[in-house]
Amino acid sequence: MTVRRNEASLARIAIAGFLSWIVPGLGHVYVGERKRGIVLLVVVALTFWFGVAIGGVRSTVEPKQRRAWFMAQVCAGSHALVALAWGSSWPEDSAEGIAGYKELDVAVIFTGVAGLLNILIILDALASCDPDYVRAERKRPQRGEEPS
Amino acid sequence: MIGMMIGSFTTPVTLEGWQRLLLLVPLCLAISIVYKTIRCERLADVPVASALLCVTIVCGMCGVGVGVWLLYLILA
Question: Number of helices and strands (H, E) in chain B?
Fold first, then answer.
């Protein structure tokens, strides 16, 4: 009985983690925190695609030139995969849609930070599978706050 | 309409120096909202808490920038 329950919760954790990676915020929706999940989904999507709008889809998500940043971008899941597929559809010899280095810096930072934020979101979705732990953690006073 | 939307993602924008600095604000805002959405027990607390955190990060970074600039002036 206990083993079956553990297997169920392990599957729940794995599904929450995967959903959270593929669509940031969806893991929270899966574990029942619908409003929190929607807020996270909107904020990460806006941050990522704002970055892509600055640098252009062709040069922002680029695995060959900026490998470390690409690893961070991939943490944003489907957003990065869509941008990568879209950016790869350009012919290599075309100069169209290539951003200057100043714009590219900002674009890569926005998209990379969106991916890194999604790591936090994935970890929180995993922890949310145990509601008692999350409730206790959110009630814990933060730095600078008086304990209630 | 759809063509315009797609075009805004395919054509890179041109940014001046001060515009790049200004983009620090939406970036800090996104970080603050995600952090506070995860941390706050009640979602109603998120707007105020994330605005405060965003202001703290931006002021802190401006402070560090001014400090490093002053250090540069002293050492130069």
Answer: 4, 0
Measured CA to CA in angstroms, residue A30 lies from A21, A25, A34 at distances of: 12, 9, 8
Say yes or no for a CB contact (<8 Å) between A43 and B34: yes
ipTM: 0.87
* CB A115, CB A74: distance < 8 Å: yes
Chain A nearest-CA distance from B54, in A, is: 14
Residue A67 Cα distances to A63, A71, A73, A118, B63, angstroms:
5, 6, 10, 18, 32
How far is it between the farthest Cα atoms of chain A?
63
Angle at which helices A2-22 and A101-127 cross, to 10°: 160
Give the global pTM. Answer: 0.85
**Mean pLDDT on A58-77:** 89
- B contact residues 14-33, partner A, Cβ 8 Å cutoff: 14-15, 20, 23, 26-27, 30-31, 33
Query: Is the distance from CB of A61 to CB of A99 less than 8 angstroms?
Result: no
What residues of chain B lie within 8 A of the CB of A100, using their CB? 12, 14
Tens of pLDDT, residue by residue over B43-76, are 999 999 999 999 999 999 999 999 999 999 999 8
Q: Which of B10, B37, B41 sits opposite A97 (nearest CB)?
A: B10
- Contact: A50, B46; criterion CB under 8 Å: no
Look at residue A148 in the predicted model and tell me its pLDDT. Answer: 54
How much is the CA Rg of chain A, to the nearest whole Å? 18
Report the gap between the CA of A142 and the closest CA in chain B (Å).
9
